[in-house]
Write a structure and sequence with these properties.
heterodimer; A: mainly alpha; two-stranded antiparallel sheet; 76% helix; 2% strand; B: mainly alpha; 0% strand
Amino acid sequence: MTAAFPLLAEHIPALLVLVPLLASVIIPFSPAPLRRAGGAVAVLANAAALALASALALEVFRLGRVTYRFGGWAPPWGIEYAVDPLAAIMLLLVAFVSFAASVYSGAAASAEVAHERLPYYHSAALLLVSGLSGMIITGDVFNLYVFLEIASLAGYALIAAGRRRDALVAGFNYLILGTIAATFILLGIGYLYMAAGTLNIADLRERLPHIYHTRTVLTAFAFLMVGFSIKTALFPLHIWLPDAYTYAPSPASALLASTGTKVGVYAMLRVTYTVFRPEFDASVVPMKTILLVLSSAAVVYGAVMAIAQKDIKRMLAYSSVSQIGYIVLGAAIASESALTGSLLHMINHALMKASLFMCAGLMLISTGAEKVSDLKGAARRMPLTMAAFTAAALSMTGIPPTLGFVSKWHIALGAVEAGLWAVVPVVLAGSLLTAVYFWKVIEPAYFSAPAEGHKPDTPAPFWAAAPAAALAGLGLLLGLAAWTPAAGAARAAGELLLK
Amino acid sequence: MKVRPSSNPVTETVSALLIPFMQLYALYLVAHGDLGPGGGFQGGAIFAASLILRAIVFGLDAEEERRYESLGGSLAAAGVLLYGGIGLLCMARGGSFLEYPALPFADPKTAYHLGIYGIETGVGLAVAGAMLLLFMKIAGSRDD
């Protein structure tokens, strides 16, 4: 494909952000027939973005690094897009999950989003994807902030689109915390610019080491880390997340849970490993130790809270807090295996949590179930949904042939290699606790009789069930063929550390 | 709540005098953006302010409210599409995104100026449209 359109190939990095952005503007403000087909337009735009991301990933793995200059200005003066293998993997992940989520939304969003708001819902979802892709792809810290705001604003709107009034409160709380986070990040960027006089990431990397010990740089680092920790929902800054994911419409929860927080972690990795070098950690701030403690706490706290929940979506939301802990834990251990595990777990969590939230939406559509206690005998009433839920839960827990096993194995292995024996029980305990809260759903669904006299079930639309099942299946498939993504992620991890 | 007139002769007279000049000044700011202070954002904000002033002072009936909203949406979308369209045109002509000299004009310098002018116009439209939409969503009586 790239050979057939040389002109197109050159512009893929820019188009990847532009296509969803322009589509998001077209949907709500176009004539009525096109507005009604908003879901289809969103699927098409996401399919185009997925094709572009795939082509870009092939190109990056062939060349090692692809850059794009805006307006013909050379970096560090102009804004540059820079795609390395890590960014390529993340772009592909975001494009893939958002494509699956858009297929699901097209069929199922109308069940949870008011009819007249649907075009705006699809528009906000595309805007989110555009913002997240921009955050991943950009090679300029200020541009990163701009895309962060685009993604965040779209995220608040998506959460507030939920059916209950609680969704507005949840969206507003996230708005407040998200704005604090964005302000911190902007302040951090401002201090970096003050100290180094540049905004280009590659240029910052060259200039910062001379001034690592200045107070300005330290302040910048602190602001950036706290800001991204809020966006990532790293314990104890996760308080916006449970309400947001519980009250948002299921397709929005699926999209946000699988992409939003991952891109936050990605930005954190970029700051700690690309903008700052590992020496900064060793000689100035013991960031790894801080992250190690916080993420270990997140793994256990999130899982324990998930066990205590009665609402299915709230349980999945606390599960996200726990799994984000795993991802940050792998990144904080910072050995090559642990980073590989962290990246694989990002992929695993993105695919599985998207599938799980879609299943939660399907349960609501077909049986009206919102609480764990509503799921008695659910496996007989909706076998496909429960099968997908179970498969995704297995991968989330880390049962052998799934991707979750491979990722958690690498994180534990990395901890052993780095001599951090105290982390190993955390990884294992987290997995056990994960098994406990998923068992709380699976046990009544498979081993209890349906309650007497329940309302007749509505069959779930095919195009809503298909992406949920496909994503869950992918967890098994990727786990079986783990050497392929593992190899890619490992290469990205190595690149990240050794560059 | 409907957007109602304040029916005060002072505000009405002053606004009627002021609004055309505000709009002219908004256009000046957009056009002058690449040479001096001003630009698309400021121009767009002032243009929207003129329309909002009109709504506050003279009031809007249901039909006007509908038109204000659809105008806001169309302006916002048109602005973003103009911006993106100029960028894409630069790409189609062999430059990178927003590389103005690639635009089809006689010499690169003219292309540069007109390119920036087009971009500023896009920004102005988007800002004016978004401000109108925000105002109507907060003060208007329509519910969708």
